[in-house]
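Question (not urgent): is this output format expected?
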Amino acid sequence: MLEMIINPKSAEKRPWKMFFIGLVYASVSMILVHWFFSSDPVLPKFSGMIVVTFSVMFSLPFMYYMIKQEEQEDEEIEGFFSVWKVHSDAIFAFMWLFLGFVVAFSATYIGLLHISGNTSLFNAQLETYCLINSPGNIEGCVKRYTFNNDVFGVGAITKEMRFLAILENNVYVMFFTLLFSLVFGAGAIFVLSWNASVISAAIGIFTQYKLSEIPIGLARYMIHGFPEIAAYFITALAGGIFGVGVLRNGVRNPKFLRIVENTIVLLFIALIVLIIAAGIEVYFTPLLFR
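Got this back:
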């Protein structure tokens, strides 16, 4: 029923609607996992992944039909600016969906922590955050950032090292986003939902689990997060378009070469945007937030 709230054609004309769809999908996912699995003796260990899985299940119909629709348009265009013009509406719709995910994940996560004290909802996300920021002491990092414990910074590294580390991680995620979208056109939504949940866990840490501080946390992570996630969505769109295009036309069809060219253009755009996002995260964001 939820996937019938909005259709891809409506989303392309009014991308901002997807923000509210993201709010609904993520909030319902968090509440369902908390409601049904928090008292189970085993499943809470996997709550972080179950939340993401629910969000993916809700989002798959929209992703599939959107990618299918974009592939049909892709067969008729060529050139850098034409490719961007045709697909930009879909990319903006995906970004609004992602923002809805982040806002709902953050607010619901922090809210449920204060109401019930359930610290298992984003257990995997917290470990991932520590893996990136404190790889030498993941267990200690997890304890340090757990709800009701004091939150403080980790060891510093040079900006150049951090830039390369972040760019390497982002390219890694970009590769798996492409792989997921090639294997299953809408499958990249798993990678993107996972990233939304990790960012939400980071927002919880940055705000020290205070609901009133969520807008500041969003600003902290979305300054570089928006271009970064846009790059992933462009990659997902490129992979989905290529996969669907091959299935529809085959490799011998004259349209195949055009699809390949447009896919390469989209991937090039995604890579440039990723480099810009890493630069913003390392050199600009710290000037605004300590």
